[in-house]
Structures are given as C-alpha cells and as structure tokens.
Design goal:
This protein is an alpha+beta fold. The protein has one domain (5-294): Alpha-Beta Plaits. It is built from eight helices and eight strands, in the order αβαββααββαββααβα. It has helices at 5-10, 50-65, 93-105, 107-121, 166-183, 213-219, 222-244, 264-269, and strands spanning 35-43, 73-77, 84-90, 124-140, 153-161, 189-196, 202-209, 245-255. An eight-stranded antiparallel beta barrel has the order 1-3-2-8-5-7-6-4. Helix 2 runs antiparallel to helix 4 (107-121) and helix 5 runs antiparallel to helix 7. The longest helix has 23 residues, at 222-244. The protein is globular. 47% of the residues are buried.
C-alpha cells in the first residue's frame, strides 16, 4: 500500500526496548533506545517450532549465567513470511561498541554464545541484520513509555521513501501526527530510520500491544482521524503519499519469553516472562545466531 493509510488505520505505536540494566525501572517500563539493532532469522522448513526454540534458549541461558546487563526481545511472525525478529537497544554507538568488546573479553559468555550460534546456524535458511536510529520528530507520545512487562505483541511497519521526495514524506507524516493529536490524543508510536543494513530512506514504525483487542479500538478511530483532517486534508495526504512512498508493509509479531533475555523488572512484574513452553499465542520464535552484542537486523 503506497500511502499513509496503513499508518492511519493501525494507529502505530512504540516498541520501546531498552538495552541495559541501568535503564530498567521499578514500574517495568523502558524508554525507546536511540539505537535499535534488529536481527531477522529465517528458519529452514521443518526446523521451526520447538526445535528452533530450544536452540535459541541456549543464547538466553548463556546471557543469564553471565548476568549480562544487555537485554533483547525475541518474537515470531504472525503475518507475512515466517521469521523471527530480535531487538536490542543501545543509548549510543559508544555503548554498543563497549558491549561488543565486553562480550568478546568474557570467555565464558563468548564460549556459550559460540556453541549456541553453531547449533542454531544449522537450522537457519538465512539471517540478516540492520541498525536503526530513533527519530523523535516522527514519533508520538513517547514520554509515556508504553512498552511494559505486559507487552505481548509488536506491530512492525516498514516504509520505503522515494529518492528526492523526503519533503513530501515529512509533510505527510506531520499531517498524520497532527491528525492523531486531535482525533486520538492517547495514540503513541516510535519511528526509527535505517542507518545500516537496509536501503536508504527506510523507516520503521513499531507498536507495542498488550492484546490483539487493542487493534479493534484503534480501527475505531479511523473515522475520527479522517474527520480531524477533513476532506481537503485527506486529499492532500493521499497526494503526499503517492508522491513520496515507494512501498510499505505491516506485520504483526508475538513476543516469546523463551527467545527473549528480558529485563529483570519485567520478569518480576509478569510471569509471562519466565520462560515456559506454550506461553505464546504464535508459533515459537527464535533468536539470531550471532552474539547478542553483535546482533543487528534488517527491518521486518
């Protein structure tokens, strides 16, 4: 869909993922990281489900034994091509570099991750990585820190902007922001822009969901949004969309505690994050074959 319509219809929100223990808060909330690395894993046919989940658990166990301060979240696709995503956030590139260096210097952790990576690699059809930078201008209501221990799903939408048309993209997105401020002021989302591992002009919008029922309430705001912009505003938005958007795609992912090295505060706040079989509504997800500190991924 080469318009802003998906962004309007799905009421994009934030996947606010933190990376270090220092970011954890007693409320179980975390702020959006400035740098988000994402790894995608595509598993060989017949190697998904419990087989891959077991191999991914080895990464989690290695991190837990080392009491590593950097956390990541793993999730599997409910829509689109079958795949798993793994999110790791950092407050800066310097923090990312230090985490990689510290991981390499920790012999026990490195050995555990190497063993897990070797076994996991046998199950994978392909893997890719990317690095994304938080775009505060195109995000909405992030001070509320909406990603909590109660999060169960992430919506991930990818937009590819046409070369030479960033102004139209920016103007259109600003209209969407203003429309939601009027029509649904509690709406919240985070925007990330690609830096490495994805085509230039790639933008991610990531949504934290506590339940699928939130999708129903969001769609109910469509009419309010259109009324807020008015007939002329919607026409202008369609024109800006056509001029600036090359392509877009939205998909839904279910978080899996067995594939995630979740923050301690999340584990304390919600039994969901204590890994156990069958605790996800979707097919079992997985985590990348690289060391966590090196795991960087490409969009969705």
């Amino acid at each position: 869909m080469k318009t802003f319509n998906w962004l309007c219809a799905a009421s994009l929100a934030i996947a606010a993922l933190g990376s270090a223990a220092a970011q954890e808060q007693s409320s179980g909330m975390m702020s959006p990281p400035k740098i988000l690395t994402i790894t995608r894993e595509f598993v060989k046919p017949g190697k998904t489900g419990a087989i891959h989940e077991k191999s991914e658990t080895a990464f989690v166990q290695a991190m837990a034994r080392a009491k590593w301060p950097t956390h990541y979240l793993g999730m599997s696709s409910i829509s689109g091509k079958s795949r798993s995503l793994f999110f790791t956030g950092y407050e800066s590139f310097d923090a990312w570099e230090k985490d990689v260096a510290a991981t390499q210097k920790n012999a026990m952790l490195s050995a555990g991750l190497d063993r897990a990576g070797l076994a996991d690699g046998e199950l994978l059809d392909s893997l890719d990585t990317g690095v994304f930078v938080y775009n505060a201008e195109f995000s909405l209501n992030q001070q509320a820190e909406h990603a909590t221990a109660g999060t169960r799903y992430f919506e991930v939408s990818v937009y590819h902007v046409k070369r030479g048309h960033r102004k139209e993209w920016s103007d259109g997105l600003k209209m969407v922001l203003e429309g939601y401020k009027k029509a649904a002021p509690d709406t919240h989302w985070a925007c990330y822009e690609s830096l490495y591992g994805a085509p230039e002009g790639t933008y991610l919008f990531i949504v934290a969901r506590k339940s699928a029922g939130e999708l129903d309430s969001d769609f109910a705001h469509n009419k309010d949004f259109m009324e807020a912009l008015g007939e002329e505003g919607m026409k202008k938005l369609e024109e800006l969309s056509a001029a600036s958007i090359e392509s877009s795609e939205a998909n839904l992912f279910a978080l899996n505690p067995n594939m995630s090295y979740a923050p301690a505060e999340w584990v304390k706040a919600d039994d969901f994050w204590k890994p156990k079989a069958g605790n996800s509504l979707a097919a079992a997800p997985k985590k990348p074959a690289e060391k966590p500190a090196e795991k960087t991924g490409a969009g969705q």
